[in-house]
Amino acid sequence: MRSNRNARGRPLSYCKACEMEDFAHSDLVPVLREIYAGTDRRFPHDYPRGNEDRKHWETAMTVRALRDHGVLRPDAELLGVGAGREDAMFHLTGLVRRVFATDLYLSPGEWSYFASPLMLVAPERLARLPFQRERLVVQHMDGRWLRYPDATFDAVFSASSIEHFGPLAEIAAAAYEMGRVLKPGGVLSLSTELRVDGPAGGSGWPGVVLLEDASIRRFIVEASGLELVDDLDLTMSKATLSTRCAIADLVATAGTDEEPYPQILLTNEGYVFDSVHLTLRKSSRYPASDNSWACPGEALKRRVHAGEVEAVERFTRAAASAPEKRG
Ligand SMILES: C[S@@+](CC[C@H](N)C(=O)[O-])C[C@H]1O[C@@H](n2cnc3c(N)ncnc32)[C@H](O)[C@@H]1O
Fold this sequence. Notes:
Helix 1 packs across helix 2 and helix 5 (about 170-180) packs across helix 6 (about 215-225). About 30% of the residues lie in helices and about 20% in strands. The protein has one domain: Vaccinia Virus protein VP39 (Rossmann fold). The protein contains nine helices and ten strands. By secondary structure, it is an alpha/beta fold. The longest helix is centred in the last third of the chain and has 24 residues, at about 300-320. The protein has helices spanning about 30-35, 55-70, 85-90, 120, 170-180, 215-225, 240, 245-255, 300-320, and strands at about 15, 75-80, 100-105, 135-140, 155-160, 180-195, 225-230, 245, 265-270, 270-280.
């Protein structure tokens, strides 16, 4: 454990775990305010003080990483993977040419709050932030097999999603795909869940894989073929480790004045976890090491395709059973 880097005046790393001190760091506070100040009646004039929220941190880390690494340009095209209805995608539409948001929008299953089909036709009904409608393209697409050619995007961003994509081999396939569709020099901003504590030998509960140092390096960094722009710093301050928030309490109080802060370390099913943000670059050495093992295989592609066919069939059945409108 180490002391607060902000107090020592060091720049905030681009590849790190979320910490309490980050919400007072001069590298991040202006970005948090640019995105969120004034968007919620509950935020005080000195936001983010008192409203330390890991989801806001993920959004601000994304915008900061992409801006500082030169990809927020008027001609840039960005891809969001497992984007749901997240704030980053909406905010980024004001900063680049186009944002492609992808998720399982047509068949969200248990994710219907996040990946509402409404995103496909009326994202304005779900946006919490102002955005440029004509610069947002929303598509149904499985993150484990991206239906884009190699080297299509200037940047890819993904938050709180890849840990839900399946076992480690499928997480690796998604990371491989993110690296593949980036243009040379492109940047990936990725946030996921970092296991801090939990049952011995366990790495999450059904539908969630909590990652650790070794699994992040193998199944995200190596699998992507990209290179971290900074050392990966997973240390956490004492102040951070003393925060705890149960997911059940967050769900029960979301959006109300009772919502507890800080929301940094979360607990669920005996686990404690934090957000971790990675910034990776596609260098001229791509792939930085052999990542062919992570490429989505035929069996995975067949499953992804079967999921798409099922989504279309369900949609078609629903349309066919709707009362016909006449005259
Ligand atoms: C916890 S939500 C996060 C959504 C959004 N990124 C955010 O930060 O609010 C997880 C998202 O992952 C999406 N997801 C799960 N499996 C997926 C897959 N195989 N391909 C694409 N998205 C997937 C879900 O539909 C859901 O929108």
